[in-house]
Amino acid sequence: MKEPIITFKKVKKNYDETVVLNNVSFDIEQGKFYTLLGPSGCGKTTILRLIAGFDEASQGEILLEGKRVNDIPANKRKVNTVFQDYALFPHMNVFENIAFGLRIKKVSQTIIEEKVKEVLKMVQLDGFGNREISEMSGGQRQRVAIARALVNEPEVLLLDEPLSALDLKLRTDMQYELRELQKRLGITFIFVTHDQEEALAMSDEIFVLRKGKIIQSGTPVDIYDEPINRFVADFIGESNIVPGNMIEDNCVEFVGKSFECVDGGMKSNESVEVMIRPEDLSLTTVENGKLQVKVDSQLFRGVHYEIVGHDDDGNEWVVHSTRKAKEGSRVGLSFEPEDIHVMRFNETEEEFDARLESYDEE
Ligand SMILES: Nc1ncnc2c1ncn2[C@@H]1O[C@H](COP(=O)(O)OP(=O)(O)OP(=O)(O)O)[C@@H](O)[C@H]1O
Record's SUPFAM superfamilies (predicted)? Predict the structure, then answer.
């Protein structure tokens, strides 16, 4: 791995007695799209503020390009932030909003004009310089905010829920645009969201946070397919989770039967939670099914039917299927060994924290 562009080493942040970040450590590589994902209040914005230099860490080290920056002020860091509300100046036009930072740095008018033109082009707002902010749509304002950050040529762009004010269609378009922009510029983006679909669609790497800790990091596929615990499984996507028992490395028992699986790492006889995603289950006949369920309801969701049923042990199963099922009928469900994911059963938060710490020490 190249030298990380940002490193957090056991960073803690507290306000008086309240611990907001607890021993957070990570490396951010240059040129990738990272997402901080987690429920409200878990510490996402705090991490951005510490990177930007708007707040100081209570303990631990923050490095930018290998150099400790704990005591370096925000304006000396090659990092720029795009805020949730864009923080544009309403009384200035688009050009002046973008030029503002350069004017403060006393950059010459010719260079300002050149640079503003260049970033307006990057965000596809060519020719919008003279418009007032009030004449711009939500998506356009968003792009002005990004242009204003890009004009400073940051190595890292921090984006704090920048799409949350947009309606669904525009939001999806902007997700695509932002991802394309990041690829084109090749700079590091660190994006904050509590929307898991957005995180999956946009990121190279996701950090999942809970209560001031990063509890899992990895590619969207890693996190979706191999959630570290039930919290991550439930937070990211829909899942069916039932209790089970490991028979041996590649064999797990649930709903009274044993199944081949490829997900090792648990001890024999260990109690586990077995997860299978709704789209990994397919409908078949009762005879051919690995599981049998009675269909309780189904909803048409456009791309698929969402079928909800229960097995004879009373466990609920959700299936995403392009085929319909009949309410009240019995159907079989099939799945592949690699679609089974096993997690520790009933792990308490303390036990989980101890497990995370043991990984850190390895
Ligand atoms: N200046 C402050 N003084 C005291 N507590 C604070 C301060 N700033 C943040 N906090 C607390 O720190 C915790 C983390 O806040 P943070 O803004 O990082 O969360 P977040 O994950 O970004 O949440 P959201 O998704 O709601 O924006 C919250 O419990 C918040 O109340």
Answer: MOP-like (SSF50331), P-loop containing nucleoside triphosphate hydrolases (SSF52540)
